[in-house]
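Minutes, project check-in
Item: structure for the 386-residue chain
Input as provided by the requester:
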Amino acid sequence: MSDPLAIYIHVPFCRAKCRYCDFFSITDLSMIEPFVNAVTREIEQKRETDRRVHTVYVGGGTPSLLEVRRIEKLLGAVRQCFDVADDAEVTVEVNPGTVDKSWFSDLAATGVNRVNIGVQSFDDQKLEFLGRVHSAGTARKSVEAAFDAGIGNIGMDLIYCVPNEDVQAWFTDLETACGFGPSHLSCYTLTFEKGTPLFRMMEAGRADPMDKESVAGRFKATSRFLTENGWFHYEISNFAKGEENRSRHNTTYWRNLPYTGFGPGAHSYDGIGRSWNRNDVSRYIRDLGAGKKPDGGSETLSNRQQLLETAMLGLRTREGMDIKEAESLVGTDFYTFFNPFAETLENRGMAVSGEGRFFLTLEGMCRLDDIVSSFADRILSATFSS
């Protein structure tokens, strides 16, 4: 029996671009209706009525800019063209200030059972720096409206390590978020991605990233605070109120399981290869209107590429890398291949192995980028049979 499938629908619309936003999100909301029609056609093109779907995620961008009837149309197409499990996790991303209580109530009636709210902060100064269009008060009202509408499974996104952010201000954000009683928190350290307004601010000397040691210290303090308060730290940036509240959808990616993406720029993976749609929204709509596929490209993954992804994704999680899977890809013993680096990590208290897995400790996780880079260097320099 094939692995259950995860479905992702990318909604590339924003009311206004923030400073760290998606490169190809657009603000022309008049394109929403033709976009929804195009995605519906793409779902019909990729129909697999015998394929069981365990999670559907509508993300962006800002999916909450869509009227609920349009979200319902997209979800209806998925249910018609795929075998969606009765207990499937169905998530919609929401940006504060784009919706009200009635929107949440209508959304719940469509079968959506999880929302992820992009709060980012409950501090107005921080929100202004990030270029968000909502205020702290609006963020609170959006979270309250979601709970009032009866959506019990609510996650929030928060950002920390903003330049000049006081550590107490960050913990005030955390305490405020926890006070609402969400089931999931995603806590992201701010990154300065090339090509974003934030990166240009850094280049112009108008924003200084927090230094690595300070970021590491705040990461560890965040994990300890949440863990001590009953949260399960299951991925570098993600915390669940109990294991049952992990994001099933994102866990699909971290475990290298199959997923199918719809919408501009969306990727799909079948366990062997990856394909992706073109990014250009107008071209995407035109292609589907003409009955064409919006193909942007595809690749079959080599053993080397699969091992790279096993390391990059697995080391992000509490479970770490599957040692047998890595050995099957490389054709030799895990430690023979990755030593002395793997043993050095264990000796320094940055990694642990057990029950067939190699995973990072909290100390190792706060140095994830450097550790993954070292694993990648070893993989890229090795000789593979395929």
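Outcome recorded: The chain has a mean pLDDT of 93.
No further action items on this chain.
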